[in-house]
Write the C-alpha cells for this entry.
Amino acid sequence: MHYIVYPFDDIRKLSFYLATEEFLARNTDLDECFFMWQVHPTVIFGRNQLIENEVNLDYCREHGIETYRRKSGGGCVYADMNNIMFSYINHGENVTFTFDHYINMVVDVLRKLGVEAYTSGRNDILVDGKKVSGNAFYHIPHRNIVHGTMLFDTDWQNMVGSITPSSEKLVSKGVESVRQHVTVLKDYLSIDIETFKQFVRTHLCTEEYRLTPEEVAQIEAIEREYHDPAYIYGNNPRYTLHRQRRIEGCGEFEVYLELKNNIIKDLDFKGDFFLVGDLNGLLTKFKNCPCTPEALREIVSGIALDQYIMNLQPDELISLLMGE
C-alpha cells in the first residue's frame, strides 16, 4: 500500500485533507493508499446531519474551533493536534467489505503495539470498553474512501463543549458523559505521537506516493466546495411531520415528511446513519405513496435497502416512517 506524502510540512485546514481523499480517489490509479493528518481544533459532522443539532456553534465561535461537513455518513467528531486522522482509499464496489477490512487493519496495528483494541458497533474501535477511534466511509464509482479518528490525546473541554450529542444517543451507549465512554491511546502506550505515527506508517505501507505542487493545486480547487456556506449549513427540510428514532446497528434517524391528504409529497432523512448508495434515489421511491403500513410495505418489498443505508431493515424503516 502507498503512503501519501505532501510537498510541504505545514498544517492545512481539515477541508484540504478531505479534498485530498477525493483527488486521490478520482484522479489516481493507486490500488490502495493511506495517509495520516492532524488539524487545529475542528469539528467535523456527517453528510446527513443538521449542524444545529450536532454542533455547539456558539462555543466553537468563542473558542476558535472550525466546523466542516464531510461527504461520508456517521456522527459528529472533534479533532485537534493531539488527535490523528486516518484516510484510506481503495478500488472496489463492496463498501462494507472495505470498511471492515480497514478497521481490522487498524485494530491489528494497535494490537502489535500491545493495545488490546477491538471493534464494536457499526464503526468504532474500543479499548477497555471505551471508544478510541470512530470511522466513516463513502463511495464513488469504483472507489471507496474510509476515514476516521485516532484519539492519541485530546482537549476534553473542547471535545465536550463543541459537540452536542442527543441524550438518547448517550443513554443508548449506557453513559451520561463523554469521559465515561471515550479514552485516549497515550494512556496505553509509552511512545509519543510521532513515534506512533511512524509505527502505523511502517506497518501499513510499503511504498509512498509524493504529491506534486500541481496536484496540490488541483486539491485546493476541490477544497473550495467544503467552504461553501450552502454546503456546510445545508437547508432545513420542509415538513408536516417529524419522526425521530435510533435504530440499533444502523444509527440515529430524523425523518421529515411533507404530507397532503396522508400522501407523502416529500421526505428527507437526517442522522448519523451510513449511506451505501444514493439517498435521493431511495427517497424518490416513497413520493406520492400513501403513508400507511400497507402502502409502505409494498414499496419497501421491492427495494434492497442495504444498497442504500447500511444495516437498515424493511420493518424498521416502516416503523420509522409511521412513527411507531
User: Anything to note?
Assistant: The chain is about 35% helix and 25% strand. The two ends are 47 Å apart (CA to CA). The first strand starts at residue 2 and ends at 5.
